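Below is a filled-in request sheet from our internal design queue. Each sheet records the structural input a requester submitted and the sequence that came back. We keep these sheets so that new team members can see what a complete request looks like end to end.

REQUESTER: design group, bay 2
PRIORITY: normal
MODE: inverse folding
CHAIN LENGTH: 399
BACKBONE (tokenized):
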């Protein structure tokens, strides 16, 4: 028998990715994530960060981290159920629940850990998960970890969701539980899920609703309270609200907010939460400071939206298609993957950092430059970025 080579596949598969131009070429941010920043030795305008409100570099968040290191140290020392449950973690959860208008919140290490840890616990064999076809990869992985049956409904199509749920009613034996799960804001297109219709349809079929609001928090709703606030829905209608501190909150971490029963259940069952070390105290303290900022400095959310409206209108005015975007995620549709990559490279040469999104992340003919607006971009930042976008669009014959 030929001797098996246990590791040669690593190089072979990596080179195949390089050849197909599907490997990641990582850029290096040399300093803070700010509207004007240094990337790979160049000064550029940042148009692709999820740091929507620029809180990652806010003095109150930075000071909170420094103070927490002094009072609590650099790390937590353990997982939360053993010896790593600090007063700062609990304070963050209490503050977040109040901010969200929920009975309770549970903070996970990341949003990915929240989805991967909770979804497989909410459902088991004999249950059904019904998922929007464009849901985020962390939801997909969470669903894969569950033993439940799966069904997918067409993107944001509540009528199709209804059909899927009607068909589920006829399943024998009857499903024990049904979980309907959707992103709040979809990260490739910047459109908003019809959560009101999803919630009504789910309620009519006795299904639980789970929304991943990673891109809605700090963006949508009253003072950035997120998609449940945006639609004026109640916790009885949307039972599980999941989110992240890694985007508009400017730090890192995930959470689940809802009823006390949900949090008690999630805490005792989510393996990602139980078996993985808790946040360093500086992370929890900065997240608390982010909530402070959202509650007392409403100008950040306001600026984010005024920049978004200005930018999207200007890009559309140049003749570009921005797809179904209604949020600070503004895709500039290019079509061909090669053109999208060329567009991004030229923009970078002109001092604008915006990444191309190409197959397999989106369909082959739907390549785009995904720009993401930021509250701290000044008028001159926006105008300079827009001039570069128009120039490259003309160079590549797109407008
Ligand atoms: N859900 C969505 C919709 C996301 O965009 C992301 C981040 N890319 C996550 C979950 C994961 O969040 P985190 O970065 O906190 O792991």
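RETURNED SEQUENCE:
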């Amino acid at each position: 028998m030929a001797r098996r080579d246990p590791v040669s596949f690593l190089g072979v598969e990596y080179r195949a990715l390089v050849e197909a131009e599907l490997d990641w070429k990582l850029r290096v941010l040399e300093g803070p994530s700010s509207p004007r920043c240094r990337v790979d030795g160049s000064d550029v305008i940042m148009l692709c960060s999820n740091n929507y409100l620029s809180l990652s570099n806010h003095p109150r968040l930075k000071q909170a981290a420094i103070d927490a290191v002094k009072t609590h140290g650099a790390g937590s020392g353990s997982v939360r159920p053993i010896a790593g449950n600090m007063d700062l973690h609990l304070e963050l959860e209490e503050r977040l629940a109040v901010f969200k208008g929920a009975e309770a919140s549970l903070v996970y290490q990341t949003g990915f850990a929240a989805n991967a840890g909770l979804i497989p616990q909410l459902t088991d064999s004999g249950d059904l998960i019904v998922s929007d076809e464009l849901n985020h990869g962390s939801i997909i992985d969470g669903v894969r970890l569950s033993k439940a049956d799966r069904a997918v409904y067409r993107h944001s199509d509540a009528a199709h969701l209804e059909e899927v749920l009607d068909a589920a009613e006829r399943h024998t034996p009857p499903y024990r539980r049904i979980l309907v799960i959707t992103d709040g804001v979809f990260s490739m297109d910047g459109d908003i899920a019809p959560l009101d219709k999803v919630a009504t349809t789910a309620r009519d079929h006795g299904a639980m609703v789970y929304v991943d609001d990673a891109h809605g928090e700090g963006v949508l709703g009253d003072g950035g309270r997120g998609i449940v606030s945006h639609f004026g829905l109640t916790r009885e209608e949307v039972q599980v609200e999941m989110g992240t501190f890694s985007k508009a909150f400017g730090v890192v971490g995930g959470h689940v907010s809802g009823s006390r029963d949900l949090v008690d259940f999630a805490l005792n069952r989510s393996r990602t939460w139980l078996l993985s070390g808790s946040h360093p105290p500086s992370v929890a303290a900065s997240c608390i400071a982010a909530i402070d900022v959202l509650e007392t400095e409403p100008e950040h959310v306001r600026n984010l939206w005024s920049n978004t409206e200005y930018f999207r209108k200007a890009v559309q005015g140049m003749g570009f298609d921005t797809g179904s975007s209604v949020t600070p995620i503004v895709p500039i549709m290019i079509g061909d993957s090669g053109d999208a990559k060329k567009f991004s490279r030229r923009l970078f040469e002109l001092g604008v950092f915006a990444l191309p999104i190409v197959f397999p992340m989106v369909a082959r003919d739907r390549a785009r430059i995904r720009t993401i607006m930021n509250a701290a971009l000044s008028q001159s930042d926006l105008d300079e970025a827009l001039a570069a976008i128009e120039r490259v669009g003309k160079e590549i014959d797109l407008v």
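SHEET NOTES:
- Residues 110-112, 136, 138, 183, 187, 212, 214-215, 244, 246, 254 surround 4'-deoxy-4'-aminopyridoxal-5'-phosphate (CB under 6 Å).
- The chain has a mean pLDDT of 97.
FILED BY: M.R.
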